[in-house]
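User: I'm writing a tutorial on reading structure tokens. Could you give me a worked example: one chain, its sequence, then its tokens, then a sentence or two explaining what the tokens reveal?
Assistant: Sure. Here is the example chain.
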Amino acid sequence: MAVEEKLEPIIAERGLGYRLNLLVKRDERTVHLQGEQQNPSKLVSPQFHFFIRDRVILSGLVIFGIIALGVLQQREPSKILQPEQVNISLLTPDEAIELDVARFMGLQNSSKIDSAILRLENSINQASNKVAIFSILSELYLTKHKLYGANQDDLIQAYQFAVKAVNASNSQPWPYVALGNVQIEQGKYKNAIESANKAISLSPKWVNAHAVKSSALNHRGDISGAWQAIQIAHKLQPDNPLVQKIRAQVLLNKNMFSWSERHLESLIASTPQDAFYLLTQAEYFLATKEYEKAEKALIELLTLKPNFIEAHLLMASALELQGKVDKSLVHLERIANSQSKYAKLALLLANLADDNNRNVKGKPSEADTYSNHFIASLTALSNKDPDQFLQLAKKAVQSGFSKEYLLESNIIYTSLEQQGQSDNLLKDYQALKTNLFNIKQARRVKRVPIL
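And here are its predicted structure tokens:
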């Protein structure tokens, strides 16, 4: 076995299993040594070979006879066993030993998700790999929450199964990755980073753990930390689709659009109907101010997943940035009436658009980041306090706010224009948007010229 420096001999790949990562080299023996090994056999007479062969055959027949006799003796008494003494398993080998959960990963079809959840929940008591089952159940419920209406019950189930997985085995990384993904959706980014760090400590080279950490840092506004985390994963597995998706999202916050575009083109070419890839592509079009393309991509996505709340949020932005405020309101109201973490944001934007006082029905996000400042700034604008709005919006940008398309909102600009007593307010708002652009430009990866 050729063991190279810094080379892991065995690699564990999620959903695939274990594989050998070493080269196998032929051990070339010299002709001289081979000759020495072969020569002794030539010294033995043919009669001796026949003698050895006959003795081996005879011994084998004797041993076989003894074994056969023992088996027959054991089979006869077994006929008198009572029915209650015989342990008959009605379970299939998969269910009785270890359920193969790999085939349930990455599902996005509603009926397939429900079928998988039912199968897994019914197999928990019999299967031996409960940690894997709990983890995949958490991921399935989380996908269901994201793509099919943001129902809080699904998010609660996702969290509870992730916790069960951690409690079942706190020495495996997958439960912490599952928990981290749920915590990101809950807006608990600090907790998600802690979960990801725990998974990394258990499996330093598993890219999913680094991807979760990068995603949590990106949501929290720590773009530098997010970039470092996803770069580690990218060096380990540059072609991993999850790594490419998270890296594309981080690159958008660094204004590195061409790099992000290459990742997205590769992902969508390989999986053209993946809802999360299409969503990231739509956000790419918003970031590059290609609003018509964003609308077209979101129409395709919402045709596939009409209850994808985050897609409705991006559609609302794409429409109102084209001046289609009435159409945008339809999507904002749908989000505001959902249980999504985006309900509060949609409610505030909808109220600013038509001066109605709608009440939010969803549970407010528990985010511990810039989003609190941005939500507070929109609340101040709704309360006719534009100066407070600007102060809080500046805090949001300083804390890591990177969604320029939200600051470009026609709804916000029109509301400021109506409330402002002087042109200085609009100038300060424009300066804020310029400052955000400059911050994102400063995050770009600097290229060193080749001399």
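What the tokens reveal: The first strand starts at residue 10 and ends at 13. The mean pLDDT is 83.
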